[in-house]
Automatic annotation (TrEMBL):
InterPro entries: RdRp_reductase_class-2 (IPR050862), RNR_2_N (IPR013678), RNR_lg_C (IPR000788), RNR_NrdJ/NrdZ (IPR013344), TSCPD_dom (IPR024434). Residues 42-132 form the Ribonucleotide reductase class II vitamin B12-dependent N-terminal domain. Belongs to the ribonucleoside diphosphate reductase class-2 family. Its cofactor is adenosylcob(III)alamin. Its EC number is 1.17.4.1. It comes from the Bacteria. It comes from Micropruina glycogenica. PANTHER family: RIBONUCLEOSIDE-DIPHOSPHATE REDUCTASE (PTHR43371:SF1), VITAMIN B12-DEPENDENT RIBONUCLEOTIDE REDUCTASE (PTHR43371). CDD domains: RNR_II_dimer (cd02888). This is Vitamin B12-dependent ribonucleotide reductase. Catalyzes the reduction of ribonucleotides to deoxyribonucleotides. May function to provide a pool of deoxyribonucleotide precursors for DNA repair during oxygen limitation and/or for immediate growth after restoration of oxygen.
Amino acid sequence: MTEITRTAGKRSGKSSGLTVERVFTTEGVHPYDQVTWEHRDVVQTNWKTGETVFEQRGAEFPDFWSVNASTIVTTKYFRGALNTPARETSLRQLIDRVVSTYRGAGEANGYFATEYDAEIFDHELTWMLLHQYFSFNSPVWFNVGTKSPQQVSACFILSVDDSMDSILNWYKEEGFIFKGGSGAGLNLSRIRSSKELLSSGGTASGPVSFMRGADASAGTIKSGGATRRAAKMVVLDVDHPDIEEFIETKAREEDKIRALRDAGFDMDLGGKDIVSVQYQNANNSVRVTDEFMTAVEAGTEFGLRSRMDGEVIETVDARSLFDKMAKAAWECADPGIQYDDTINAWHTNPETGRITASNPCSEYMSLDNSSCNLASLNLLKFLRDDDTFDVAKFVKAVELVITAMDISICFADFPTESIGQTTRDYRQLGIGYANLGALLMAVGRGYDSAGGRALAAAITSLMTATSYRRSAELAGILGPYNGYARNATAHQKVMRKHQAANDEVRTFTDLDASVHDAATSEWASVVSLGAGNGFRNAQASVLAPTGTIGFMMDCDTTGIEPDFSLVKFKKLVGGGSMQIVNQTIPRALNRLGYTEETVEAIIEYISTHGHVVNAPGLKSEHYEIFDTAMGERAIKPMGHVHMMAAVQPFLSGAISKTVNLPETATVDEIAEVYLQGWKLGLKALAVYRDNCKVGQPLSDGKKSEAKAEAVAEAPVKVEYRPRRKRLPKSRMSRTTSFSVGGAEGYLTAGAYDDGRLGEVFLKLGKQGSTLAGVMDAFSIAISIALQYGVPLETYVQKFTNMKFEPAGMTDDADVRMAQSIIDYIFRRLALDYLTFDERAELGIHTSAERARYVETGSYLSEEDEANLIESEALKNDAGDEVTIHEDGPNQPALVEARPHSTAEVLEKISGLAIDAPLCMTCGTKMRRSGSCYICEGCGSTSGCS
């Protein structure tokens, strides 16, 4: 009520409300009626234990939503108790719950000129969410429209003063924020150091000691929630007398982890003994000043100051202290760095107070005791089929999203009154985007290239300019934010800084030039409108990690990140999963002018090797377009830094991103990254050196153990080679006649005594013809490979969906259409010789199974399901005993751990372990998303995204 009264009072003398234009929707047609809906069974299991962790059958989604997206939405965002009428069962219910709340609050607070404008806003917002053009941050989906408190913010900044009351209140406030599934950050620099005296005459404990209590609290709440860790950021100013202790805190704990591990304790992530280690629940960052960084460059002394009177109580060598930061980051990835003067130079509210801290992922930087709600746009959705960027639709989308985000502050609840008051007074928003990496690849621009950075800068500039222009328009209707009057000069100055930075962007082609021209026009409107109306929002944009919502939007890449790898792990409808090549790659190759045959050859090469180096027909100058975060052609550390520097001048806040470095990186290289981040105008930076932590899972055992074994066994060279297991003289066989697109032939398949396929013979064309000869050679090659242990499912993966003539209708009831004779043959072999589970992973089913699925929602009959359960029980009773022949394995390829995520797919291809924790819910190895980790299996995150 307070907010409604306040905004209503501001409307005197203002215009009557927004007129909303229909852009995405059609008059008289509801967005839901324009898509095809289907029902899906969402079942999640922990692949390590086999335990079913979630099950909801018949969830309704559009047919173009991926299995991954529908799984994550069903498990994370559907509200109501499972198996009760109160449980949400359709995406329509979820979207309606949120959009109707936004519309209602918008109408109640005077945002729309007419009821008809409110209806258009409702339909447009629904259409964009339905078609995955954008998503609100997770708390919106968790809370809006439910009986829970209407918390819409994901990011919080707290404050703590030098008193026990304030410190204990810090613990309490953090606890409530963690309980709600969000993250918080704060700066501890007001707490006096351990080198200063208390009023009683004793020595102060110092901020690092109080961090122990906060860390224990966060760890306890994490254990109670068990779905994500308590995300937090702890910041300390570089001139604090305890800064050296703070820098080395987590590095010392990492040494403790190593010692305990070597003593036999379980120190892996999730291990029972890791909880004894302190400071593991927070990201630490040092807040540096220009004065300090200048002293680092000059190699001069720097003063550490008393918290009580600001006097210098100790001097240190600046370069030495900076090197300690780099060394600690080299050892354990902490601390990160935040550039205080740069942050506050772009601060729109300096008269209210300085920015001292950030949220856990470092993208939200604003006043103490404040919060920010986030939303992210899916950039790839705005790329037209002709590879031009749809500027007009992007601008309209930003307008709608910013309007909705501002409306949310009118009805939002907050964990503390002080946070609620600051947020209502300054109305900080955080619009951002995802899929930048995929967009750049699709248009043929390398992530680490001038062209890639130019397009990213232009898009970011257009997004923030449009946001502030709409903010000024809202101010003209509803009035500026409460704190604007005292900060008007500073706010307008920052707008002109953004405008000047936009003028410095150099464009290369019509693609980025058109986006930049629109941004230039928008910034002119921002400056002129803002001068008259003021602004509705103190902050407009950030770049968040977009972990869970990135999967909800079916994005290939999250936030500002490049593609993680070229090979993906994809869930299939009906269960199972498969390895696929990133679907943006064919689009990029076609744009670059490669023929269809060459594109197919390159994709086949990538699916096997995981990279493009030496791919057949691919020009070396195009390699950079397909560079990724991990793998053979991993983007260099400074490539990440330069991309951040390109977009930072066009963001109100900062960027959630970690600069990855190889295991061989040196302390000096990390120091150089931190130094260049300051020179290039970044607001914050975090680094991660591969394998720098002990408590991380490896795919095939610890690297250190492998190295030790290699050294110990160096004098002995043991080489295993596959052996051919020939078929018996008399063997079972099956002959199948077939017709594909009118071409007739015969398939004869021979098997071992245990039923495994061992040979294939194909009869096509007349004896002595070229076709018959080629098929004979092909049959021999496949047969020998099968006898050497190549799994049939590998061939099915490679050869199904291969296109060439003849193709079309077949005379096989189980395979009614085939894209080629080869496609048909391997589908038929899969049906004849693979188990149901193996076929299900590949999406291959009999006609009877497909018919049963339509009727019952399951491919298996009740009898088959019972038999499957019984066989699994027998298999489990048999244990894991494996018999190994003395002369080497018969079929080594069959003894293989299947990947369960993209990170594990990349490990399988490259043979390298990916530094990432295992998901606490489903056991899948997670992958990086900004400064956090995200699980592709269930959508759980390790941070605040």
